[in-house]
Amino acid sequence: MGTGGTGFAPAVKMKGMQMSFKTILVHIDTGKRCSARVDLALRLALQHDAHLIGLQVLTPFEPPGYVMAEMGPAIIEAQRQVAVNEIARAETEFTKQASAAGLRNAEWRTAIDDPVDAMTLHARYADLLVIGQADKADVAHTPVDFPERLVLAAGRPVLILPSIGSFPGMGKRILVAWNPSREATRAVTDAIPFLRMADNVHVMAVNPKAGEHGAVAGADMGLYLARHGVHVEVKTDQGAEIDVGNELLSRAADLDVDLIVMGGYGHSRLKEWVLGGATRTILESMTVPVFMSH
């Protein structure tokens, strides 16, 4: 029964046991940034000794019945063959990248469904999702609202890669956008595997409200992260004259960070996703990768 008659067995200290990402899911599409996204996911999988899943989602081709009748079976079969060829090409490219990176724990999956629905289903069994920023100029056939809908629906942290730029050293200098909300709390906790490996982590509270954070805004979160072995600095940005989203992007540039961690804010209203202002600004204007949890 243990010592002291408490009825509890003594705690066992697990040496070297750390939170980590062990299953990573990366979104595959036909966009020009897909290769860069896979490259980032591969580096993360190697870094965390994780299993990487590449998921290509094709939206079902469902024209109205009268269009189907006019198209005829030959055209319908041609459409199907195009999809088959695209899946084969994408799988070959994914396998080639994984092999070149030296990752043995790589898996390929395909789905014909709404992209958000498919990613959300497969996300149930992953620790981290890697996707790309929406780019209206790209011809990836991925909906432009894909990132925002997925962040709010997945139930898992989502790492979003900007539509421009390269980020070979991502995660060395991290900016945490902190407020005492459920979403921000979850984002920080989900990001601990990144935060522990970073050289510098800046916890920033923008225009904190009196009494909302405790005696010193961000101080308690700084202590919480320090206990997890994170090298953290706490900063307060008072009196910012621009909106929170743009203020975070400005501070990210000033601090030369390579990753932003923040909560993703929003809700569903009449079957439409409604985002918070800072979340929308970051998703539209990000300059570095963004790690979001809802």
Brief write-up:
With 294 residues, the chain is of the alpha/beta class. The protein has helices spanning 34-48, 65-101, 115-123, 146-153, 182-190, 192-197, 219-227, 244-255, 277-285; strands at 23-28, 51-58, 106-112, 128-132, 158-161, 173-177, 200-206, 232-237, 259-263, 266-269, 272-275, 290-293.
What keyword list fits this structure?
single chain; about 290 residues; alpha/beta; Rossmann fold; ten-stranded mixed beta sheet; two-stranded antiparallel sheet; disordered N terminus
State the assembly state of the protein chains: single chain
CATH architecture of the largest domain: 3-Layer(aba) Sandwich
Strand percentage lies at: 15-25%
What's the main sheet like? 10 strands, mixed
The largest beta-sheet arranges its strands as 3-2-1-4-5-12-9-6-7-8
Structural class: alpha/beta
Radius of gyration, CA atoms, in whole angstroms? 22 Å
Count of domain modules: 2
CATH class of the largest domain: Alpha Beta
Give the fraction of residues assigned to helices: 25-40%
Q: Tell me, what's the shape?
A: globular
CATH topology of the largest domain: Rossmann fold
Quick one: CATH superfamily of the largest domain? Answer: HUPs
Total E-strand runs: 12
- What is the CA–CA distance across the termini? 42 Å
Q: What is the overall pLDDT average?
A: 86
Low-confidence stretches: 1-17
Number of helices, counting only DSSP H or I runs of 4 residues or more? 9
Walk me through this protein's architecture:
This protein is an alpha/beta fold. It folds into 2 domains: 23-161, HUPs (Rossmann fold); 173-293, HUPs (Rossmann fold, 3-Layer(aba) Sandwich), CATH 3.40.50.620. It has helices at 34-48, 65-101, 115-123, 146-153, 182-190, 192-197, 219-227, 244-255, 277-285; strands spanning 23-28, 51-58, 106-112, 128-132, 158-161, 173-177, 200-206, 232-237, 259-263, 266-269, 272-275, 290-293. It has a 10-stranded mixed β-sheet, with helices on both faces. Strands 10-11 form a two-stranded antiparallel ribbon. Helix 7 (219-227) links the parallel strand 7 and strand 8. Residues 1-17 have low confidence and may be disordered.
